[in-house]
Amino acid sequence: MKVIRNCRLISRININGYTLLHQVADMKYYPGDKAGPCFQLQEELKWLKRVRKIIPTHYVMHRNNAGNTADEFFEEQHAELLERAQKWIKDTSQSCSAVSVLVASLVYSAAYHPPGDIENERNTVASKLFTVMDVTALACSLTSFVTFLSILSSPFEYGDFRRSRPRKLAVGFSLLFISVITT
User: Fold this and answer.
1) Number of C-beta neighbours around residue 141 at 10 A
2) 70 near 25, Cβ under 8 Å?
3) Rounded to whole angstroms, how far apart are CA atoms 22 and 60?
4) Angstrom distances, CA of residue 139 to CA of 10, 71, 106
5) Among residues of the chain, what percentage have pLDDT more than 90?
6) Main-chain dihedrals φ then ψ at residue 32, nearest 5 degrees
7) What's residue 143's pLDDT?
8) Cα(147)–Cα(139) distance, rounded to whole angstroms?
């Protein structure tokens, strides 16, 4: 019985001409953003993709009473969220890239002025550990800077927020975190 109800729900069109895909695109069914607009947009794009897989293929091009396909309706409904996500990810990337450059400059200067007496302590375990941690911090901070710079220099379209931007942001955060820890 449950399968029959689901099939009936999938194939229904309401009085506004909405298919299930149009219903998913409607913003009035979504709660406010919880983890930031970038991740909210990512979740909604994933949800739209999941529903697209289960509906009949000809419903993807179905137009509602206003003349919009579900994708056009989604873009219309989520325009404000896209703007907020773009602003949020730009601000976050700029702030994190500034921190990563600061960490890189600190560890770079520490590489030329290591603690202790260099002549007597060159081959000790502490000296080798300091060198490894310094190189790790420098590499991770510079890589996180490049990651955040790639976010800032790329376009911000709907498709980018499904996987690319949130993944790059997570990689940049992780590398920045590792660089701060190893500093």
Assistant:
1) 27
2) yes
3) 9
4) 51, 42, 13
5) 28
6) -65, 165
7) 96
8) 12
* Tens of pLDDT, residues 161-174: 877 888 899 999 99
* HSE, side-chain direction, 13 A CA sphere, residue 115: 7
Distance of alpha carbon 53 from alpha carbon 48, whole angstroms: 9
Report the 10 Å Cβ neighbour count for 123.
7
Q: What separation, in Å, do the N-terminal and C-terminal C-alpha atoms of the chain show?
A: 60
Residue pair 143/175 in contact by the 8 Å Cβ criterion: yes
How far is C-alpha 27 from the geometric centre of its chain's CA atoms? 20
Q: Where are the domains of the chain?
A: 2-77, 81-182
Overall pTM surpassing 0.85 (yes/no):
no
Q: Look up residue 78 and give its amino acid.
A: H
142/176 Cα distance (integer angstroms): 9
- Mean pLDDT of all residues in 105-118: 80
Helix 79-112 vs helix 164-182: crossing angle, to nearest 10:
30
Structure tokens at 146: 């490049």
**Tokens standing for residue 40:** 């909210």
Q: How many CB atoms lie within 10 A of CB 83?
A: 12
For residue 148, which of 102, 79, 81, 83 has the smallest C-alpha distance? Answer: 102
CA distance to 80, 84, 98, 109, per residue, from 103 (Å): 35, 29, 9, 10
